[in-house]
Design a protein that fits this description.
Blueprint (H helix, E strand, L loop, with lengths): L4 H19 L1 H6 L8 H19 L5 H24 L9 H19 L4
Helix pairs in contact: 1-3, 3-4, 4-5
Pfam families: DoxX (PF07681)
Protein name: DoxX family membrane protein
Subcellular location: Membrane
C-alpha cells in the first residue's frame, strides 16, 4: 500500500531536521529556554525523535502512531519557538514578524500531522 506523496514529504522534512540536530547542535541548544535543564540532551532527544518518527511515517501500519508522536513533539518544542520570539539574543537576527509567524505555523504543522492519525 502506498501512502500519499505529501506524507513522504513530511517524513523527509522531519528526517532532515532531525539530522540537523546532530550536525549543528549549537543552533538548537541556543534556543532551548534556560528553564529546561540539560539542553544538549534535549537537543539530541528531539533530533532522534524526529528521525525515528520520520521513518515510522512511511510505513502504513506505523504512520498513525508516528503522526501522533510528531504532534506531541511539536507541542514539546513550542517553548523553544516562543523563547526565540521573546529573546532577541537567540533569534538569529530574524525579524520579529518571522518569529511571530513561526508560532501559529506550529498549529499548521500539527494539523498536517493530524491528517495521518487515522
Amino acid at each position: 500500500m502506498f501512502l500519499p506523496w505529501h506524507l513522504y514529504l513530511m517524513a523527509l522534512l522531519y528526517l532532515l531536521a532531525g539530522i540537523n540536530h546532530f550536525r549543528k547542535p549549537g543552533m538548537y541548544i541556543k534556543i532551548i529556554p534556560p528553564v529546561f535543564k540539560n539542553p544538549k540532551l534535549l537537543n539530541y532527544l528531539s533530533g532522534g525523535a524526529e528521525i525515528i518518527l520520520s521513518v515510522l511515517l512511511v510505513f502504513p501500519f506505523t504512520s498513525p502512531f508516528a503522526a501522533w508522536g510528531i504532534i506531541l513533539l511539536l507541542i514539546a518544542v513550542f517553548p523553544a519557538n516562543l523563547y526565540m520570539f521573546q529573546n532577541k539574543k537567540v533569534s538569529f537576527g530574524l525579524p520579529n514578524w518571522i518569529l511571530f509567524v513561526r508560532l501559529p505555523l506550529q498549529l499548521i504543522l500539527m494539523y498536517w500531522a493530524y491528517l495521518y492519525t487515522f
